[in-house]
Amino acid sequence: MNRIEVKDLNVYFGDAHILKNINTEIPKNTVTALIGPSGCGKSTFLRTINRMNDLIPSFRKEGDIILDEEDIYSPKYDVASLRKKVGMVFQKPNPFPKSIFENVAYGLKVHGIDDKDFLHQQVEESLKAAALWGEVEDKLDNSAMSLSGGQQQRLCIARTIANNPEVILMDEPCSALDPISTTKIEDLIHKLKNDYTIIIVTHNMQQATRVSKYTSFFLNGEIIESNLTDKLFIEPKVKKTEEYITGRFG
Ligand SMILES: Nc1ncnc2c1ncn2[C@@H]1O[C@H](COP(=O)(O)OP(=O)(O)OP(=O)(O)O)[C@@H](O)[C@H]1O
């Protein structure tokens, strides 16, 4: 079953045509990797899925993005509920300058939940799901800024999970992390894919092969090839894909 269907998507920033005739489907509860050279539109594509590009005045789009059979750009679609449904994890960990507890409880509090026991239970569950609980359970009141970069990124994933999303967008979530933290995040992605639909932008092709079931190769704003990750990397159908994955450009 598909969670997201993208139909004839074109994106412009002013006169620049950034995404060109994108047609793709993102299956439910799987990991899909987006690969391609710098500037080819991977992040822009990711940001159309939670309507973050709407914040850019020169942004314009044609075509449809259907999430669970609803057009997310329809005037009647509630953007706040979209952002709850579609969580995002960024390249650099970006915890709030608050305690570990407050970071995870933040989204719930914004949505009016103030029952202390319930909040505590949700924070614990989210931190467990993000494989961070054991490292922070006795220092929940410490500042999130006191955590290592890898711990901060898992905290940001816990913060996202606490909102009970269906889709998690990850924009190069490991690029600022050391190899050990990267392995922890990759292990976490493996675990999370059972419950969430994950789309990850990565420049690391080994990472794409390790974490994803499907991969889409972007080039100059177009999807050149999409396939099962194993197939795309072992038997690419398009010459440009082969050239990119074998390091001949990008
Ligand atoms: N806010 C913006 N205004 C104008 N152009 C933008 C804006 N954001 C991105 N672009 C342009 O859109 C194109 C695609 O950028 P995008 O960040 O989506 O690429 P990317 O594939 O994610 O690159 P990278 O791998 O380097 O992060 C680039 O040419 C970029 O300059």
TrEMBL record:
It is an enzyme of class 3 (hydrolase). The keyword Nucleotide-binding applies. Pfam families: ABC_tran. GO terms for biological process: phosphate ion transmembrane transport. Residues 4-245 form the ABC transporter domain. Transmembrane segments: none annotated. Its EC number is 3.6.3.27. The keyword Cytoplasm does not apply. Signal peptide: none annotated. GO terms for cellular component: membrane. GO terms for molecular function: ATP binding; ATP hydrolysis activity; phosphate transmembrane transporter activity. Keywords: ATP-binding, Hydrolase, Nucleotide-binding, Transport. PROSITE patterns: ABC_TRANSPORTER_1, ABC_TRANSPORTER_2. PANTHER family: ABC TRANSPORTER I FAMILY MEMBER 17. This is Phosphate import ATP-binding protein PstB 3. It comes from Methanobrevibacter filiformis.
